[in-house]
Amino acid sequence: MKPVPPAKQQALVARLSKACGGAYSPKERRKYFLTGPQWAAAYEGHALFHAPTRKPVGYEDVIREYAKIGIGHWTTHDTDVIPTDALGTARQEEIVSGIRKTLKKHGLECSMVTTETFHHAVFAASPAAEAPEVREYAKWRLTNTVQIGHDLGARFAVYWPGSLGYQVQGAIEETNTLRWYADGLNAACDADIAIARERGRQTMKHCLEAKPFEPAAQILLPSSDAMLAFIYSGLLKHPDMVGLNPEYLHELMWGAAVRAALARALLCGKLFHFDINDGYPLKHDVDIGVGLVNPLDWLNVLVLLRTHGYEGPFNLDYKPPRTTSNWGVFSVSFPTAVDRFITLWEMAGEVAVDPVIAQAYEALKAGGGGDPRDANSLAEANKELLTLHELIAHRLFQILVGAHRGRVFAL
Ligand code: GCO
Ligand code: MN
Ligand code: MN
After folding, report:
1. Dihedral through CA 298, CA 302, CA 303, CA 306, nearest 10?
2. Are 341 and 292 contacting, i.e. CB atoms less than 8 angstroms apart?
């Protein structure tokens, strides 16, 4: 094949993406509580070892393109849209009112706001630094974000304390740092209660997001489970207002079974929000689009969430790869991520009503009888039934590849 000239490349990608088929309509996509982060679409492809490969994109473009795709909700960090120096000034009000207008114009809602407490040099020693003035500043940032959230009608606030940790051991005293971090969250919840009362609105759901590695070398709250312990530690003034925003990849990164991590959050009533993406265990935070690495695991995750009636947001917190162009972000990356999610969600519905799986679970729960005081008799009584575990896994694979609907390969 001859080289494809740059002017013809978009048309080629568009033709091949059409050839993939299976795209849902924007109307169908809007039925799901899918939320699109400003920072995900605006990610320029940069990293420690990478120069940017894409041009900056502002909120107007992101919101307009999300609307076209059928992503009905938008999420943002404070500094994704407001320069640090403009926070709390009249410029903030102007920007927030511009965002409100743009959202309205395109029929989108802002569902979640989050505070950037990791990028700026002021947070070099985390938002819970030793210096009381830095902590005062962090509290102000968190409460300012809560106010922006109310201004934009958001129902969720997310906190990712990735800088809460250390590079060298002994430099900080962990119990102090955690207490100081709790003070910041308490200030955010208090501000929320006051603003909600004043404006006749509901308070927000405050969601903690864990990541086991990066950017601190050692992280004080590295997993969703650590955060549950923190919520119930007695340090929080309003533990009922605080829950979790697990991220699929962040649990997988430390080698967890993501589904089990989510199950523990569900049991505590703390699964408030969910960041969806994909990647590999024991690697850095590659933030790949949902379903591209672990579709079978994803199917299982969604079976669990459907079974338990999870109704919170699915936040598309991934990073379009550096090899995708600015045009490709909105024409390929986001629509295909959304469509894989919806397909997996539908498959999870099929798992829930699959007669093979239903009968297998029922039989397993009925058990094989036997004498409850006799280990050998119990083992014998259940021996053949337990083969169903592997059969269930095979059936899930069949549902993933469509074999349950008659899709066949050469037999
Ligand atoms: C990551 C994190 C972030 C957070 C975001 C919200 O992957 O590095 O998930 O994307 O979700 O900062 O606070
Ligand atoms: Mn991540
Ligand atoms: Mn995330």
Report:
1. 180
2. no
Residue with structure tokens 């919520």?
231
Q: Which domains does the chain have, with CATH numbers?
A: 23-353 (3.20.20.150), 355-405 (no CATH)
Q: Are the C-beta atoms of 123 and 83 separated by less than 8 Å?
A: no
Q: Using one digit for the tens of pLDDT, what is the confidence trace for 37-91?
A: 999 999 999 999 999 999 999 999 999 999 999 999 999 999 999 999 999 999 9
Q: Find the 22 Cα to ligand 2 centroid distance in Å.
A: 27
Q: Which residues line ligand 1 (CB under 6 A)?
A: 114, 158, 160, 209, 211, 247, 275, 285, 287, 317
What is the C-alpha to C-alpha distance for residues 306 and 396, in angstroms, rounded to an integer? 15
Half-sphere exposure of 359 (CA within 13 A, CB side): 4
Nearest atom (ligand 1) to Cα of 275: 11
> Mind spelling out the 3-state secondary structure of 207-239?
EECCCCCCCCCEECCCCHHHHHHHHCCCCCCCH
Rg (CA), the chain: 23
DSSP string across 295-350: HHHHHHHHHHHHHTT--S-EE------TTS-HHHIIIIIHHHHHHHHHHHHHHHHH
Report d(CA 144, CA 195) in Å as an integer. 11
Report which of 79, 6, 84, 8 is spatially closest to residue 39, judged by C-alpha positions. 79
Name, in order, each residue with C-beta under 8 angstroms of 116's C-beta and a sequence gap of 6 or more. 77, 78, 79, 80
User: Counting ligands in written order, which one lies closest to the CA of residue 163?
Assistant: 1
Q: pTM for the full model?
A: 0.97
For residue 61, the tally of other CB atoms under 10 A from its CB is 16
Average pLDDT over residues 143-148: 98
